[in-house]
Automatic annotation (TrEMBL):
Organism this protein belongs to: Actinocatenispora rupis
Membrane-spanning segments: 6-22, 29-53, 59-80, 92-114, 120-138, 150-167, 173-195, 216-235, 241-260, 267-285
GO molecular function term, any single one: transmembrane transporter activity
Keyword Lipoprotein: no
Pfam families: EamA
Keywords tagged on the record: Cell inner membrane, Cell membrane, Lipid A biosynthesis, Lipid biosynthesis, Lipid metabolism, Lipopolysaccharide biosynthesis, Membrane, Transmembrane, Transmembrane helix
Family: Belongs to the EamA transporter family.
Record's subcellular location: Cell membrane
Protein's name in the database: Membrane protein
Length: 286
């Protein structure tokens, strides 16, 4: 297995875990997102500055514009996702988001960026998405959360996933920005852009921090780690391969949700996981 593909699969595990943590949070979605972005910025910015000072990249306008656009896209993505988790089931929002994202990414990468994945890679990507469909097509039972609302939030989140994936791929491959430095600047800008409104809601801040400090810490650490691995992988693998492979996180998330919360139809989810594994194998052999 290529090392870059291994990075993407590790990132998929981390991504599934932090999404489960995000789903557990309750209360002010905006403040929750701001808190974990702020902690991520505190952790990542010093590392990014040290790497920049020691030769990993150099100062330029691209190191401002690239992270700034990424920050805006990630803010919209994070707020839509967190709101979706509060108003609908994770088993609807998460799979729809992770399924729509790579489909849009693959189409745009081929049409706009001119990438030409081989037939084996394309077949593997389609098989990954087929496995995701098997895992997530579960009859809705005994739930008071809206299915259509989950679809809407999931689709909107998926569109943002495609947008930031393509932009970040352009920034780290087309512009050659160092992935860790790039992410450190982007997450710092995310926290900075959200701060003015967060300060005005400081009355609710204590409840968010004291009630969900574990979830904040989990997302703050695992989300950057997962995405930095993806950015590094993008430098050696086409985005049309990275995007579908990282969606194995939906299978991992579904299995973890069953193990932790005893969700329905574990056999169906395991069958879907095997299908996804077959798709990832094809991608690795492409």
């Amino acid at each position: 297995m290529p090392p870059a593909l291994g990075m993407v699969l590790v990132a998929a595990v981390l991504h599934a875990v932090w999404n489960l943590a995000a789903k557990r949070s309750r209360g002010d979605s905006y403040l929750f997102v701001w808190c974990y972005m702020l902690v991520s910025a505190v952790l990542c910015l010093p590392i990014g500055l040290v790497l920049l000072a020691t030769g990993s990249g150099h100062w330029s306008w691209r190191l401002v514009v690239g992270p700034l656009v990424s920050a805006v896209l990630h803010i919209v993505y994070s707020l839509v996702l967190q709101t979706g988790y509060e108003r609908a089931d994770l088993s609807v929002v998460y799979p729809v988001a992770r399924g729509v994202g790579p489909l849009v990414t693959m189409v745009v990468a081929v049409v706009v960026l001119g990438e030409r994945p081989g037939p084996t890679a394309l077949a593997g990507g389609l098989l990954v998405l087929a496995g995701i469909t098997v895992v997530t097509t579960v009859r809705r039972q005994r739930t008071g959360l809206p299915f259509t609302g989950g679809l809407a939030y999931g689709a909107a989140t998926g569109a943002m996933i495609a947008a930031y994936t393509l932009w970040d791929d352009h920034s780290v491959t087309g512009w050659g920005l160092a992935p860790v430095v790039y992410f450190a600047f982007a997450v710092t800008m995310q926290a900075a852009l959200l701060t003015p409104a967060a300060v005005r809601r400081r009355a609710a801040l204590r409840a968010v921090v004291t009630g969900h400090w574990r979830e904040i810490g989990t997302v703050a650490v695992l989300s950057p780690a997962a995405y930095i691995l993806v950015l590094i992988a993008m430098r050696t693998m086409p985005v049309t391969i990275v995007a579908p492979a990282r969606e194995s996180s939906i299978v991992i998330g579904s299995l973890l949700a069953w193990l932790l919360f005893r969700e329905a139809q574990p056999v169906r989810r395991l069958i879907g996981a095997v299908v996804v594994l077959g798709g990832i194998t094809l991608v690795a052999l492409a």
